[in-house]
Amino acid sequence: MYWVLLITVTVVLTLVITAAFGWRVFAAAKGLIRELKKTTQTLNDASETLRGVQEMEGVKAMRARAQHD
Fold it and tell me: pTM higher than 0.85, yes or no?
């Protein structure tokens, strides 16, 4: 009977410890995903700004070419 109680306590403690670490890993992964979303949004904004600048440079070049002709 003593061995059954010892095994039961060991299994319960193992499950509790595993669940605690699993929860920490899950919470860390959630935070990482949140940061990745923020970074992706920042990169999208920068890309949009760069596209706008490139378009403006293209318009300037076309105007300069038109004035030269």
Answer: no
